[in-house]
Amino acid sequence: MRQLSKPRRRFLAGAYRQALALAAAAAFIYPAAAAAQPGNWPGKPIRLIVPFPAGSFTDTIGRVVADGLSKGLGQPVIVENKAGANGMLGVSEVARADPDGYTLLVTNSSSITINPQLYKKIPYKPSQLTPITTLVESPFILVINPEWAKKNKIETTKDLVAYARAKPGELTYGSAGPGNAAHLSFAMMGNHQNFKATHVPYKGASLAEVAVLSGEIDSVFDVWSAIPQIRTGKLKALAVSSDKRVAALPDVPSIQEGSVPDFNVIIWAGLLAPAGTPEPIKRKLFELTRQALQDPKAQATLSVQGEVVTTGPEAFQQRIDKEIRTWGEVIRRENITLD
């Protein structure tokens, strides 16, 4: 057998050491990619971050999703509430996480399509997240105080618009805070219909609803928690903010029926992951989530929050891009910025 020369042996030994070093470096730099291979995932519990408090609209949806994914994946999916800064704390944590399928996010549309354009300083970009599926859609409900409505002879959205045009600035409306989707929706309606109303911000949607109930303010684009108050007559519903009626309030017209054309605002909750999450993992998450939300028990729980709608990653991304453009136009026109 021919022996290699000493220089040749040194060269091959050096090349071998270099190859080992490169392999070790790759394992150190890309552990998430190795762990995220479809054959290995999931090999441990998954964190599902909800960037809002326990019991909130988003939290309720997140817990239904976590339960369904736990059953489908055979691993615990643990909900962690990371509330604060209007959802930004929790969202930014997921945006910075490894794209290995072990950190997921259930959040609402505002944190993805509004906050990045509204705040001067924000610790994440929408591009740092990849969409998996929408979960629940919920149009706002335009409600007014029934006594105020009776006094001012307001029965429809058309009547409300006429009142606002005739008395610029006198119509008051509430929201869960400056830049909230309800605030921007009312501002957009005013722009569409050429009227000015006075915005009164509150520290939460429930407080804005209470203000309408008490007569402190005239109106609000409310969330679905208002439905019991509507059914008992304590609030008067004029319209839902979508382009069609909803099954939960079949007698309430869409806002387009109420003479506000080209208006269609629907807030959503969705499942997202860090950008770069492998496609096989995204597809598996989408399919398992879609199956989980078809369960009658899950549907019954979520019907209080809105309508279950599972849209795949591509269509979900298109929706996000469109809403970023829409809300950006409203924010710039109204000159709204927050620190």
Throw out a few tags for this protein.
alpha/beta; BUG; 5-stranded mixed beta sheet; 339 residues; 17% strand; 6-stranded mixed beta sheet; single chain; 2 domains; D-Maltodextrin-Binding Protein, domain 2
Quick structural overview:
Belongs to the UPF0065 (bug) family. This protein is α/β, with parallel strands linked by helices and 339 residues long.
Describe this structure in words.
Helix 3 links the parallel strand 1 (46-50) and strand 2. This protein has a 6-stranded mixed β-sheet with strand order 2-1-3-10-4-11, with helices on both faces. It is of the alpha/beta class. It folds into 2 domains: 46-137 and 267-334, Bordetella uptake gene, domain 1 (D-Maltodextrin-Binding Protein, domain 2, 3-Layer(aba) Sandwich); 141-258, D-Maltodextrin-Binding Protein, domain 2 (3-Layer(aba) Sandwich). Helix content is 45%, strand content 17%. Residues 19-36 have low confidence and may be disordered. It is built from 13 helices and 11 strands. Keywords: Signal. It comes from Bordetella genomosp. 10. Residues 1-35 form the signal peptide. This is ABC transporter substrate-binding protein.
Q: Which oligomeric state applies?
A: single chain
Mean pLDDT: 89
User: What level of helicity do the residues show?
Assistant: 40-55%
The number of domains: 2
* Tally of contiguous helical segments: 13
Query: CATH architecture of the largest domain, please?
Result: 3-Layer(aba) Sandwich
Gap between N and C termini: 76 Å
Largest sheet, strands/sense/barrel: 6 strands, mixed
Secondary-structure element pattern, one letter each: HHEHEHEHEEHHEHEHEHEEHHEH
Structural class: alpha/beta
Strand arrangement across the biggest beta sheet: 2-1-3-10-4-11
- Morphology: globular
Kindly state the number of beta strands. 11
The fraction of residues in strands falls at 15-25%
Spans of at least 5 consecutive residues whose pLDDT stays below 50 are: 19-36
CATH C-level label of the largest domain: Alpha Beta
CATH T-level fold name of the largest domain? D-Maltodextrin-Binding Protein, domain 2
Radius of gyration: 25 Å
**CATH homologous superfamily of the largest domain, by name?**
Bordetella uptake gene, domain 1
